[in-house]
Amino acid sequence: MSILLGDREYFKGVGKIAYEGPESDNPLAFRWYDENQIVAGKSMKEHLRFAVAYWHTLCGTGLDPFGGPTLFYPWNEKSDAVARAKDKADAAFEFITKIGAPYYCFHDVDVVDYDDDVRTNEKRMQALTDYLAQKQKDSSVKLLWGTANLFSHHRYMNGASTNPDFQVLTHAGAQIKMALDATIALGGENYVFWGGREGYMTLLNTDMKREQEHFAQMLKLAVSYARKNGFTGKFFIEPKPCEPTKHQYDYDAATVVGFLRQFDLQDDFSLNLEVNHATLAGHTFQHELQVAADAGMLGSIDANRGDYQNGWDTDQFPNDLMEWTQAMLVILDAGGLAGGGINFDAKRRRNSTDVEDLFYAHIGGMDTVARALLIADKITQKGEYHKIRSDRYASFDSGKGASFEKGELSLEDLFSLAAEAGEPAMISGKQEYLENLINRYI
């Protein structure tokens, strides 16, 4: 058995997933994702930078608030934490190479189980860092980003970097240091902060101003440490409005942009945006992408979807072509993702228990995103979509409208212009036409 597969093959009966084209009926093949196809000057592989998420793919057990695990893995059989983690890494890289993703990403505790002793955890992570480095070398798979899980352990019930107890905050710092060490050693291109419990359940016992200042200070310490140790990539913050806390400080893209600017962190940080989190914040995914792009902070994506009838973070695999086409139009206009990629922060359903189901889920997600890229590129090439939008603002391209944008008019000038011109004509926004236009290409 090769080093890449380890001592056993975990996904028997499934070979390397190949591109077979739109006419293929093979459920274990790509119909739209052809990594070498050139779209808008780059290959699909370069545009999309797909990453397999360690947590849901290798660690997700199918449990929910009303029932226990339904997914059981052969790589979890050994009692020793490091040996068990190495088996998981074998399974991870077998899956990643078979699905053909160029990247992966992880939380620290997904890679290897931690206990309550910081130094023991450091030794475990160092052992797995060495093991993953060899896996990366053998497979050419790269680390898109690493992060620390600062929300699952009971010590973080009141937050991590925003915890009112300084001793808890020190443990958060220790985990961030270890996760950064692993990310740097593995050549990780980015590092992510998700403030899973950085927020409050009630303001009655919360000093919100102080907590956000503590969060900013922790981010500054992380940047300083990482830069000092050779990390040149981007830091990402992932917005989410609520769940598990009532209100999380990284509520949505606009909130995070404001926070980063307030604490002078905008040069080192961009945003990692999740579809399901946009839904929970009452926004479309397109809206969140546009906010980040307009601020110059569009970094990376967690690809999934929510259930509009359910109202919580269901993390299903993406399959909505309209949603993703609109997203790709924003991404293409922004010049692509700045350093990040598209990871599948998505889990198969708890009753999808066959080995093949994990492949079907990723194939479907990758094909959806790839097809949306192709559609968005065709729409862009035709030019009608952008022309309708630009024509809508044409009155600001010359004359007094251009003077206003340059700051050359006063409020008195606007009054005089309005009085002279009288009531303006009504101009259609053509919303339905544009929606039909996108559907026409789909």
From TrEMBL:
Cofactor binding note: Binds 2 magnesium ions per subunit.
Gene3D superfamilies found in the cross-reference section: Divalent-metal-dependent TIM barrel enzymes (3.20.20.150)
Known cofactor(s): Mg(2+)
Record protein name field: Xylose isomerase
Catalytic residues as annotated in Swiss-Prot or TrEMBL: 107, 110
Gene Ontology cellular-component annotations: cytoplasm
Gene Ontology terms, MF aspect: magnesium ion binding; xylose isomerase activity
Subunit and interaction comment: Homotetramer.
Keywords, ordered alphabetically: Carbohydrate metabolism, Cytoplasm, Isomerase, Magnesium, Metal-binding, Xylose metabolism
Catalytic activity, reaction form: alpha-D-xylose = alpha-D-xylulofuranose
Annotated Mg(2+) 1 binding sites: 238, 274, 302, 345
Gene behind this protein: xylA
Enzyme Commission numbers on file: 5.3.1.5
Record: residues binding Mg(2+) 2: 274, 277, 313, 315
InterPro entries: Xyl_isomerase-like_sf, Xylose_isom_bac, Xylose_isomerase
PANTHER family, sorted: PTHR48408, XYLOSE ISOMERASE
Protein's cellular compartments: Cytoplasm
The keyword NADP appears for this protein: no
Family per similarity comment: Belongs to the xylose isomerase family.
GO biological process terms on file: D-xylose metabolic process
